[in-house]
Amino acid sequence: MALREQLLAVAEELRRRKTAGDKTVAVGEDTLVALRAAVAAQNRGAAGEAGAPVPPESPISRPAVAKPDDGASFVRRAPAAAEPEPIREPARKERGAALFGDSASAAKPALKIAPAQEGAAIPPAPVFTLPEGDKATRWAWLKDKVENDPVCRAHVRPGKKVVLGVGTLDAKIFFCGEAPGADEEVQGEPFVGAAGQLLTKMIKAMGVDRGQVYIGNIMNWRPEMPTPPGVEQIGNRPPTAEEMAYCLPYLKAQLEIVQPEVIVALGATASAGLLGAGSFKALGEIRGRWHSFAGRPVMVTYHPSYLLRNNSNRAKRVVWEDLLKVMERAPLPISERQRNFFLER
Ligand code: URA
């Protein structure tokens, strides 16, 4: 994984764990050294110098995902020795840094997550009605509308793209993520980076292709963070409530066009956007259960980036059980083998 992707994956996982209610994450000294080296290298790279390599033994230098291929590598159990080390739950007395900072017994924070930058003033959400016509006509109209939406455009950096969902307009299953990241705003398509590649494998494991479902996001642009002039944004921040409210009509319009049987909310931010931020404290409270949005059933599960950092069979099984419920409801055929994914040791 390239340095930038490593940093993005670490930052995203930390942010997601914070959103999920984790207060602390223990970080070993070697990881802190590697992170500092990576940041220094990134800064030097931005200034035109060669970057320092991340030490090979660093946990962040280990590949988090296998090469994109098919669902098999999502369901295939990696040999124990080859499994990436999951981020450990904080051992209170453990040496290391408390990243989320407010635990009295945790060690002194060495690294803080930057507070989310409030987005620039966001006007009220757009009000529009989809034109009459077939699904393709309505979707093409929507795509043109979002790409020319002045607010969306104003939040996208030069050379980057506003992102609408992709997939078949006859999809039974509508996956809903949070917001475009670095790869998505370049390609103009949701879930094409590391998390997206894992999502594609999860979809394959369900017995369908990425092109047979629909994949969208709560947000149509990548929430921006302050960066020095000429430097690419590193990391992502969760969208503000105002940003999500602004983009929600676009998500609703996609649902109106696709009319899926099931929506899958991936992670805490998507769930907050769909179900209301005040409706839960931690994702664990609501995942694995049916909820409702715009008259359609919503299954809440963890975001694929959670599995990028915690790819134990146990974590995969938790997500897989949620996806089995989705398959039952869609409905999709479920083989005995699929029922048992991640159970065998
Ligand atoms: N994460 C998301 O939630 N959405 C994307 O499109 C990519 C990563």
Question: How does this model look, in words?
Answer:
This protein is of the alpha/beta class. The chain has 2 domains: 98 residues, no CATH class; 225 residues, Uracil-DNA Glycosylase, subunit E (3-Layer(aba) Sandwich). It is built from 13 helices and 6 strands. It has a 6-stranded mixed beta sheet, with helices on both faces. Strand 5 and strand 6 form a beta hairpin. Helix 4 packs antiparallel against helix 8. About 20% of the residues have low confidence. The structure holds uracil (URA). Uracil binds next to helix 7.
Largest sheet: 6 strands, mixed
Question: CATH homologous superfamily name of the largest domain?
Answer: Uracil-DNA glycosylase-like domain
Distance between the termini: 28 Å
From the coordinates shown, what is the CATH architecture of the largest domain?
3-Layer(aba) Sandwich
Domains (count):
2
Number of helices: 13
The CATH top-level class label of the largest domain: Alpha Beta
Could you say what the CATH topology of the largest domain is called? Uracil-DNA Glycosylase, subunit E
In percent, how helical is the residue content? Answer: 25-40%
Named once each, the bound ligands are:
uracil
From the alpha carbons, calculate the radius of gyration and give it in angstroms.
20 Å
What proportion strand? Answer: 5-15%
Specify the overall morphology. globular
Q: Which strand order spans the largest sheet, edge to edge or round the barrel?
A: 1-3-2-4-6-5
Find the structural class using helix and strand composition: alpha/beta
Mean pLDDT: 79
